[in-house]
């Protein structure tokens, strides 16, 4: 009933809306002064994620400023390893860190208690659904098993995910076990978010682009397909966006193989290819976040190309990856105005 007012839900069901609805990946974050203010009050980054008062506040900040069509729950994909007791920490200037896991550590992982540990996140979702305008879609999310595993194996972010790729060649059984365990926990976590009030969920596979052909199938497609099947078996009406960054040509079959309702596109996906993908269902993306930093003509041209090429089919306008801290909030306002002013 309320879904009719939530434009992103309509696009996720296959409708074309003109202008397309929009939200931005990482729309709550350091480019906003009000985020930096709440962040300074909250203590550690994980405290921010686990304190519903603060997490609700930062989720709502970009909605108040820009009126995006979706709010995305403020949290992080690394709350799953945190709940698995991997000692996750976010130290200023270091990015995320945790204890690196080995074969024995993987076999000793205990999934019980993960959802209970994440209860504050579900409380945030409940409060958000109550506090958001009826027309705003509330998105939950989690990381895809491959992307989360890359951090668990290395213990930190790496430019090319070499530690996880190497581990997978050396210890294929333990690696498969890790991915399947993450898939099952993450599916239950998404179901818990949906039950708490999330309208739809996004799965972030930010590091899908470093995988070879067979590895993409085994580590990006298979676990995500397992997650989506589990979520849809448990909650048949769930809507799911899958974002496999850098997947390139592999996107051709990604929707069909994973069962995702919509697929996210990074900015390297050619718009002609994106149109082909859109023939099979909704797409989301794919503006280069650097165009938002650049502003002016670079921003306008990038927006116009996407709208012209993809605006006459089911599209959720978004960036091709998260907005960066150096983006000027005024450029985001210009982006919203331009997308909203488009008449296809
Ligand atoms: O607004 C939103 O999109 C919701 C919040 C959100 C965050 N992280 C907040 C965050 C979401 C959806 C994520 C997902 C996430 N986290 C991903 C997948 C998407 C992507 O961007 O590829 C990944 C790989 C992570 C892991 C992670 N968390 C990294 C690599 C970092 C450090 C990056 C940095 O810029 O320092 C984080 C920290 C993080 N997560 C921040 C935010 C706003 C910045 C931390 C801070 O405020 O100090």
UniProtKB/TrEMBL annotation:
Question: What is the name attached to this protein's record?
Answer: Uroporphyrinogen decarboxylase
Question: What is the protein's major site of localization?
Answer: cytoplasm
Q: What does this protein do?
A: Catalyzes the decarboxylation of four acetate groups of uroporphyrinogen-III to yield coproporphyrinogen-III.
The entry marks the following residues as binding substrate, namely: 26-30, 76, 151, 206, 321
Pathway annotation from the record: Porphyrin-containing compound metabolism; protoporphyrin-IX biosynthesis; coproporphyrinogen-III from 5-aminolevulinate: step 4/4
Family from the record: Belongs to the uroporphyrinogen decarboxylase family.
Please give the catalytic activity noted in the UniProt record: uroporphyrinogen III + 4 H(+) = coproporphyrinogen III + 4 CO2
The record's NCBIfam families line, in alphabetical order, gives:
hemE
Q: Name one Pfam family in it.
A: URO-D
Tell whether Cytoplasm is among the UniProt keywords.
Answer: yes
Superkingdom of source = Bacteria
For this UniProt record, the keywords arranged alphabetically read as follows: Cytoplasm, Decarboxylase, Lyase, Porphyrin biosynthesis
Q: Which PANTHER family match?
A: METHYLTETRAHYDROFOLATE:HOMOCYSTEINE METHYLTRANSFERASE RELATED (PTHR21091), UROPORPHYRINOGEN DECARBOXYLASE (PTHR21091:SF169)
Q: Where in the cell is it found?
A: Cytoplasm
InterPro entries this protein is in? Answer: UROD/MetE-like_sf, Uroporphyrinogen_deCO2ase_HemE, Uroporphyrinogen_deCOase
- Does the record's keyword annotation contain rRNA processing? no
Q: Which Gene Ontology molecular function entries are recorded, alphabetically?
A: uroporphyrinogen decarboxylase activity
Top-rank EC class of the record's enzyme: lyase
The EC designation for this entry is 4.1.1.37
Regions crossing the membrane: none
Q: How does it assemble?
A: Homodimer.
Looking up SUPFAM superfamilies in the UniProt record yields: UROD/MetE-like
What organism does the UniProt record list as the source?
Rhizobium miluonense
GO biological process entries: protoporphyrinogen IX biosynthetic process from glutamate
């Amino acid at each position: 009933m309320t879904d009719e007012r939530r434009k992103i839900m309509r696009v996720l069901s296959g409708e074309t809306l003109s202008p397309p609805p929009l939200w931005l990946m990482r729309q709550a974050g350091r480019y906003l002064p009000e985020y930096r203010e709440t962040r300074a009050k909250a203590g550690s980054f994980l405290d921010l994620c686990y304190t519903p008062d603060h997490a609700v506040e930062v989720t709502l900040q970009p909605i108040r400023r820009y009126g995006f069509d979706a709010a995305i729950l403020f949290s992080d994909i690394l709350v799953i390893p945190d709940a698995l007791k991997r000692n996750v920490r976010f130290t200023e200037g270091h990015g995320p860190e945790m204890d690196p896991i080995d074969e024995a550590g993987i076999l000793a992982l205990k999934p019980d208690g993960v959802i209970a540990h994440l209860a504050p996140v579900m409380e945030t979702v409940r409060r958000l659904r109550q506090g958001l305008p009826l027309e705003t879609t509330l998105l939950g999310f989690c990381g895809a098993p491959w992307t989360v595993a890359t951090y668990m194996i290395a213990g930190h972010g790496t430019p090319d995910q070499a530690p996880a790729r190497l581990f997978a060649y050396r210890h294929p059984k333990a690696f498969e076990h890790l991915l399947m365990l993450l898939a099952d926990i993450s599916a239950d976590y998404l179901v818990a978010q949906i039950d708490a009030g999330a309208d739809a969920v996004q799965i972030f596979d930010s590091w899908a682009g470093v995988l070879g052909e067979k590895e993409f199938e085994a580590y990006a497609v298979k676990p995500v397909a397992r997650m989506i099947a589990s979520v849809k078996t448990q909650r048949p009406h769930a809507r799911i966006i899958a974002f496999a960054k850098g997947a390139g040509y592999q996107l051709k079959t990604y929707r069909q193989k994973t069962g995702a309702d919509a697929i996210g596109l990074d900015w390297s996906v050619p718009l002609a290819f994106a149109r082909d993908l859109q023939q099979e269902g909704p797409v989301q993306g794919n503006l280069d976040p650097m165009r938002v930093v650049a502003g002016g003509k670079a921003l306008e041209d990038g927006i116009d190309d996407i709208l012209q090429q993809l605006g006459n089919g089911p599209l959720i306008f978004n960036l091709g990856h998260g907005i960066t801290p150096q983006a000027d909030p005024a450029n985001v306002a210009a982006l919203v105005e331009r997308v909203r002013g488009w008449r296809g």
